[in-house]
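Working notes for the structural subgroup meeting. M.R. asked for a predicted model of this chain before we commit to crystallization trials. I am recording the input and output together here so anyone reviewing the notebook later can reproduce the run.

Input as submitted:
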Amino acid sequence: MEQDVRIDKWLWAARFFKTRALAIEAIKGGKVHLNNVRVKPSKTVSVGAEIKITQASIERTVVVTELSSKRGPATVARTLYKETEESIQTRLAHKEMMKHASGVIRTDGKPTKKDRRLIHKFKSNI
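Returned structure, recorded in token form:
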């Protein structure tokens, strides 16, 4: 059992980010908060700490259950944290909302010359 693990290493080991560089970038960008405080990548994590992670407009709140600085299989990574019930509900609600708010525009096919002129006119006025 490890005692001191940097937050960037822990986030990488828990598979929230694909690389440590991405984890560091997110931390420096203010997308990660440890116990509701913005931190630096070198801050150490302890068991029981609450981490808020914002990725692609989805905010997850997790509680650290184990420490690790080595990246392992996803099944092991899931044992490093416990996501809060409120976070799970918010994430599922956001997923459902995105499912119904599809931004796909259905058309009858290729725009006509008149349609293209209207599109260009609209874009130039923006």
